[in-house]
Specification:
Blueprint (H helix, E strand, L loop, with lengths): L2 E4 L2 E4 L6 H14 L11 E7 L4 E5 L12 H13 L4 E8 L9 H8 L7 E6 L5 E5 H4 L8
Parallel strand pairs: 5-6
Antiparallel strand pairs: 1-2, 2-7, 3-4, 3-5, 6-7
């Protein structure tokens, strides 16, 4: 797999990633089209593969109250819990229309930390530019708060 390493992430050639990653990226891109973003016009799709091998999808759903808005990543995570109960995530893909792939917001990072080990790959792709970046979850969320 050709890759260019920059800082804490890798820039990947999508044509050279494993089929399982391609499918996860496709799921994130497809569900992104279902996003309800009348205020920001910023659509996001997320696909999460659990350790059981199932894939759960989510898209952002905005709300006029703003605080009621649900991000794609939390939507996918909630779908996994609703379907499987508590479980661990194996891989995450997030698609957005920004020029540079958009990482999860801080709330989503904290939310995902409940289900995601630091070494889990997070694939971010821009549907606009085609840029694909791969992070370790621990790089995106280095000091997760998971217990109290």
């Amino acid at each position: 797999m050709e890759k260019e390493t920059q800082n804490d992430f890798e820039i990947l050639d999508e044509s050279k990633v494993p089929e399982s990653v391609k499918h996860l990226l496709d799921d994130a891109r497809h569900v992104m089209e279902n996003a309800y973003a009348p205020f920001s016009h910023f659509k996001v799709g997320a696909a999460i593969r659990t350790k059981r091998g199932n894939v759960f999808r989510g898209c952002n759903v905005e709300n006029a109250s703003l605080g009621g808005t649900i991000c794609a990543e939390r939507g996918a995570a909630m779908a996994s819990v609703a379907s499987e109960g508590y479980g661990r995530f194996k891989a995450i893909a997030i698609a957005s229309g920004s020029d540079d792939p958009a990482p999860p917001c801080a709330i989503c990072r904290q939310f995902l930390a409940q289900f995601t080990d630091p070494d889990v790959p997070v694939y971010l792709i821009s549907v606009k530019s085609g840029v694909l970046k791969k992070f370790r979850f621990g790089t995106l969320m280095p000091y997760a708060f998971t217990e109290f």
